[in-house]
Amino acid sequence: MELKFMEALTTYDFIITASIIVIISFWFNVISKRTNIPSVLMLIVLGIFLNLTLSYFFGSVPDFLESLKILGTVGLIMIVLEAALELELKKDKIVPILKSMSIALIGLLASAYTAAFILQLFIAEMSMQSALIYATPLSILSSAIIIPSVGGLSEKKKEFHIYESTFSDIMGIMMFYFLIEGLNPSEDAGAVGFIGNIALTIAIAIVASYAIILIFQKIKSQAKLFLLIAVLLLLYAIGKKLHLSSLIIILVFGLIVKNAHLFFPGKAKVFLDTDKIKQIYHELHIITLETAFVIRTFFFVIFGITIVLSSLLSFKVTLISLLIIVSIYLIRFLILRVLIGRDIFPQLFIAPRGLITILLFYAIPKEAQVAEFESGILLFVIIATSLIMTWAMIKDKRKIGSLLDEIDEQYEERNTAEDILKEKINSNGIESTEDKIPDNEDTIP
Fold it and tell me: What is the pTM of this model?
């Protein structure tokens, strides 16, 4: 049946379909900015609609799993690079960065262990190690959803979400692969080896980033930015082959490009061509933004196509999912209340799961897979957390709108009161202070 599907569509049909999907995704972004409904959620719904359409006309849907993995990996790199290029390092940013990192780490660990306990409670054959491997993807914030969605928040809250979601992505992936290494005692280096792995990755990232910047600012060819992207993808893939935390390489490179003046201090500035590095930063920022948009579009549409809707009808799936969701927001409330204070809206509800969750779920090795685990739990948590974020963003937008309306009303009332006062003064024949001010400066003694 898959062969019939592939034979039925020509090259031009694929081009037409892909083009229409990108155009629809653009309008989803426009709708998202006006309504605060995440465009990712609309893309998943579009994928589900395409799934139903393909099933109706062809009887089945092709296997997009490998395409999903490739798109997800490249999309992840682009999203982290895009976020890193937004992060400006200053002395006054140290505390917000450390606070965001702490919230991301504590939230990840607490959510993962709580979700693992819930899974183990309802799925008898699941060991604690397997439960943690399944729970980790469900505990990672989605920067793919958060970063495009928080543009309307205040600068302070927007920065917090960019930092937190980026750190959650990186630390969540590191935790996931650390747990997987534990499945094979021969490959498990323990906590010391894990810390050493991170230190080695950071050292490689710094050396590679300096080398790339020094080389690429000397290249005069106009077509060099996709060469730069290719180099970063190569470093990421080699790093994964060597079991390094490759996302750190991408993050460090983006931070150095954005904050080149800090990484080339004093006499080291002679090696930096300021105009060239600004041009590289500007063009790289545009390319990562556009590439992340396209990849994110196809990733979530294809994910929607691969969804099995019947998995959501299970009472067990619903119960497990709801318990995990409640635990996510309860833990988040406690952490934010302690580390941030009272002003935790809408931050409390901006905790969607998405691209990383899906990507890591498909990366679970066979020896850790549990047949009783329903993929509907994954879908339920992703959709529910996205809808909750949507509700919070809409409510926050209305709150700001009401506040602005109130300020406008107070301003209008004040102006009206002043006009009434002036009328009373004029009707009583009393000169206002404005009338007493001479028009001609020469008459002032």
Answer: 0.80
